[in-house]
């Protein structure tokens, strides 16, 4: 864990850097595609999503958690083939990042982030641009 300061511009600036954001999406896609078949199954999504985003489920029942993942998967499996391809995964990542940017807002916040989290990648990108 590391402590970082970020705001919505940290997140949106990272998303606008197409090469950096695309490389990050590819990295996470390969990480979640644990069997290497070029797609993410519902099980792979459930097992790996927490490594990208901190998921808080302490007060939820197992059924609520399962429903969350089913809904999440259905929302982004655009071609309804039962798996998420890299293009669908990129859409998922963009939508989640935009939601986080809106939630963070324009006032800088101090957050604790995992080293490999998507928000930490945005912070690192911003720091590299300023250097």
From TrEMBL:
What name has this protein been given in UniProt?
Calcium-binding EF-hand
> Has the keyword Ribosomal protein been applied to this entry?
no
According to the UniProt entry, the coiled-coil residues are: none
Span of domain EF-hand: 20-55, 64-99
Q: Which domain of life is it from?
A: Eukaryota
Pfam families named in the record: EF-hand_7
Molecular functions per Gene Ontology: calcium ion binding
Alphabetical keyword list: Calcium
Q: Sorted alphabetically, which InterPro entries does this protein's record hold?
A: EF-hand-dom_pair, EF_Hand_1_Ca_BS, EF_hand_dom
Where does this protein come from, organism-wise?
Answer: Corchorus olitorius
Keyword S-adenosyl-L-methionine assigned to the entry: answer is: no
